[in-house]
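Onboarding guide, step 5: your first structure request.
Type a short instruction followed by the sequence, for example:

Predict the 3D structure of this protein.
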Amino acid sequence: MAHIDDYETQKSNLGYIQTAMDEPMLEREHELSLARRWRDKHDEKALHELVSSYTRLVISMASKFRNYGLPMGDLIQEGNIGLMQAANRFDPEREVRFSTYAQWWIRAAIQDYVLRNWSIVRTGTTAAQKSLFFNLRRLRSKIERENESEGLADDDRKRIAKKLNVKVSEVETMEGRLSGTDNSLNTRIGENGEDEWQSLLTDENPNPEDVVTAMKDSETRSRWLKKALGTLDSREQQIIRERHLNNNDVVTLEDLGKELGISKERVRQIEARAMGKLKSSLTAQGNVPAFL
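The system replies with structure tokens like these:
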């Protein structure tokens, strides 16, 4: 749904547009002279004249994005930012008209604004996804006219995916996003509007009671394991920690043997003996970890 400005905003926008359209067009040589004065001398008057003369280009570009439901004034201001970026980067020696060069910057600035503000849900991140966002409606309308029907068939989605170099699943997802709108979680529902939409959402996280219980159980198990490890000698503790309590990669029997100066088979024997001690100690305390 397109954004509708109030009367005062519409009046202000119209005045700005009329002023921009009244700005004189620049002759090629004068345009290049202004660009050089800004580049070489940072002449702000030259910059102002150059930018003002092409504000009409911003308005024209912004009007192409007015159906995305965003304020026209904001689209124009974002386009002006792109115009300023173009003026800062323009090289008058490249034999290219400033209007041709500035179009890309203006369009990019407006598109970035649309993507940031069209929805609270992030819409497109890659260049292909951005292309899909801005071209899907046009391609869908074209295909519907050709087929004299509404909606897209699977072959139509494959056709669009191939043309825009994206996956069919991405076309389907974007199609759903463009056909829907963002809704507040505080939207009232029910016959009398007594409930909010968020009240029907399921919280899959554990409740506070379960969290506290799990924390208590974890503390108890840690205390039992610490006590059980105390029954082992230093070498046995090292082997158990490296082989079963290491959060990183598990150390192999061979590597431990080299570190301790014993054979791999001897490490295995010590590990088996230590595991037996741990199991006995923990069983006596009423808890046996899964690795035993």
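Each response can be followed by summary notes, for example: The chain has three domains: 1-118, 124-180, 208-285.
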